[in-house]
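wait is this the right file?? whatever heres the structure
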């Protein structure tokens, strides 16, 4: 083996040892792949939209009030060499729709993608309809795909004179592989000299761990964190023109993300979500429900015959009061999330009560976490 081959062999062995050490240090139960917490700048989907017509409906299409549907039918027929009068067109079997789709990154001409069809008129049901050829445009106004085919609603609707039944939303349907990509997106990925990783949840600790993991893998400081959510990676000379392999190696690295402690509550739905890092100071909690029940009964007092009295309504109120007998529960400083849940469950509180309790803990300055109300 020559000296160059020996040096390359030693470099590969050192890299394998580094990867093994990283895998051993970070527990698989706590670590996640960089692929799951970060995105590569420029590698994203593109939104497409188009306007089209769904035909073949069983009398559940747009009515006369949807004038744009009639105009679209006239325009389409004229392009096909058929001259018609607007007043002669009935659109009960036709529905105007908006067609949307997502163009995946690196999609090439000829690829098939799904499309979503949504009624914009007063059509009642798109079941059994067929979407006519519809160009799909991006934000720059250029056509990147065309959609055509049968519409799958995944639901139904039926009605009579006095009753109706409906499952899901039959005015929205999907074309499975119903759109064909017609234009490539120019993205010379392999010619890049650097990569930009963006964390889905920006955090200074997480971005530092990701940077250290990448530099340890390649035994070279090729990664540099620009801020809490961005990492700049310089492409090593050995991977110039072969960024696919480089990205695959980076995505497989395991890191343990770090998040700030927070409690998220949604009072509209009664949902409470607490992170594992939530801690509270030493406090005592007592939470008892006060229930007051007032029941009104009305009786009639009727006078004796020929007594010249009046018939009056006599109210009778039944009032009862119930108050919870929950005792104080003391939570010491540094109580973990599991201990908080167990203590609150011992109080027998509901999710609605949890919201009030956490707001009170926050007001008392004992909640060592961020309280978010959504």
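ok assuming it is, sequence goes like this
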């Amino acid at each position: 083996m020559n000296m160059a081959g020996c040096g390359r062999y030693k470099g590969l062995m050192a890299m394998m040892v580094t990867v093994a050490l990283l895998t051993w240090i970070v527990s698989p139960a706590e670590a996640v792949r960089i692929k799951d917490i970060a995105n590569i700048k420029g590698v994203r989907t593109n939104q497409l939209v188009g306007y089209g017509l769904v035909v073949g409906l069983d009398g559940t299409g747009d009515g006369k009030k949807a004038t744009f549907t009639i105009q679209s039918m006239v325009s389409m027929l004229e392009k096909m060499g058929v001259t018609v009068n607007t007043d002669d067109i009935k659109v009960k079997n036709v529905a105007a729709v908006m067609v949307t789709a997502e163009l995946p990154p690196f999609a090439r001409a000829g690829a098939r993608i799904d499309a979503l069809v949504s009624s914009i008129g007063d059509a009642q049901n798109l079941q059994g309809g067929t979407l006519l050829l519809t160009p799909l445009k991006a934000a720059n106004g250029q056509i990147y795909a065309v959609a055509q085919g049968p519409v799958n609603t995944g639901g139904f609707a039926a009605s009579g004179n006095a009753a109706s039944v409906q499952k899901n939303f039959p005015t929205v349907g999907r074309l499975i592989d119903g759109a064909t990509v017609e234009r490539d997106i120019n993205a010379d990925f392999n010619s890049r000299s650097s990569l930009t990783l963006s964390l889905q949840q920006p955090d200074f600790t997480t971005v530092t761990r990701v940077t250290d993991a990448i530099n340890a893998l390649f035994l070279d400081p090729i990664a540099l964190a620009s801020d809490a959510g961005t990492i700049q990676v310089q492409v090593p000379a050995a991977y110039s023109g072969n960024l696919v392999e480089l990205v695959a190696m980076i995505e497989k690295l395991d890191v343990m993300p770090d998040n700030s402690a927070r409690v998220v509550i949604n009072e509209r739905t009664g949902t409470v979500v607490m992170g594992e890092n939530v801690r509270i100071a030493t406090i005592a909690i007592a939470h008892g429900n006060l229930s007051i029940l007032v029941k009104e009964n009305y009786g009639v007092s009727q006078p004796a015959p020929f007594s010249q009295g009046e018939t009056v309504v006599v109210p009778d109120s039944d009032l009862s009061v119930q108050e919870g007998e929950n005792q104080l529960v003391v939570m010491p400083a540094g109580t973990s999330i599991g201990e908080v849940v167990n203590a609150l469950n011992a109080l027998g509180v509901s999710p609605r009560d949890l919201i009030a309790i956490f707001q009170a803990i926050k007001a008392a300055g004992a909640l060592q976490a961020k309280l978010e109300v959504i």
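Confidence is low (pLDDT under 50) at residues 1-28. so i think its the right one actually
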